[in-house]
Amino acid sequence: MREILKPHRIFLILLAAAIVTWCIWNLKWDWLAEPKYQAMMIKGLWQTLWILVVTMVVGMLLAIPIGFAQAAGPAWLAWPARVFCSIIRGTPLLLQIWMLYYGIGSLFPSIPWIRDSALWPILRQAWPYAVVALSLSVAGYEGEVMRGAFKGVPHGQLEAARAMGMPRFTMFRRIWLPQAIQRVLPTIGGETVLQLKSTPLISTITIMDIYDVAGRVRRNTLIVYEPLLLLAVAYMAITGVIVLLFKWFESRTPTRTA
């Protein structure tokens, strides 16, 4: 409580309250009462959240073996993993999304066995390409982070496990992976926030996320600032939830020492 009641914090709280009050009374918010915009906002928020969660989970599941291959794998696994991380980190995410959707996605209609398969109703939509592109982006960046985390595990613990005759997979599951995850947990939280800020790029391939909803409202109503302010509040609220969740995870994660 004493931290909150410091003079500079009180000033910032009062300033924020004044800005919010001014925005509520002086800007136009009547469009929020229209059912079509309410439905669009709910759908856009849902699209943003599920794509964020799925791509982070899939990306981390890919990042773990990519990082381990670079840290302790044979050369024939380490080099492809390094090349993959270099390509993902060296090219813009928007380019990767467009290459998948407008490049590879445009080739599928010309392949008869794909067009006639049960997967075609899914592949003709935009969201699979967005999920793949965002997941690979997480895998590329976090794969490099996981490489450093795996290398940071004390070698003495690994040598002791080998001396005890512990199988390699058991060493990975009980020593390497838990300590690596504990080391990178704050980084994963930051990557999740960055991933949230990357989701607006999927609107360029016809997916209606909350960013795209704000654009549609602006085009339909010619109201500029209100949708953007509401969009900023939505992103800040989601970011706050992500930060609190990862702080809770960190507090529940035991600290490991060498």
Describe this structure in words.
The protein starts with 6 loop residues before the first helix and ends in a 6-residue tail after the last helix. The protein is 78% helix and 0% strand. The model has no long low-confidence stretch (mean pLDDT 87). The longest helix has 38 residues, at 35-72. The chain has a single domain (42-252), classed as MetI-like (MetI-like fold). With 258 residues, the chain is mainly alpha-helical. The protein contains 11 helices and no strands.
What are its keywords?
258 residues, mainly alpha, MetI-like fold
The total strand number stands at 0
Taking the sheet with the most strands, its summary is: none
Cα radius of gyration in angstroms: 23 Å
CATH superfamily: MetI-like
Which spans of ≥5 residues are poorly predicted at pLDDT below 50? none
Reconstruct the topology from this structure.
Blueprint: H1 7-26, H2 35-72, H3 75-90, H4 93-107, H5 112-115, H6 120-123, H7 127-151, H8 155-163, H9 168-198, H10 210-221, H11 225-252
Question: What's this entry about, in short?
Answer:
This protein has 258 residues and is mainly alpha-helical. The chain is 78% helix and 0% strand. It has 11 helices and no strands.
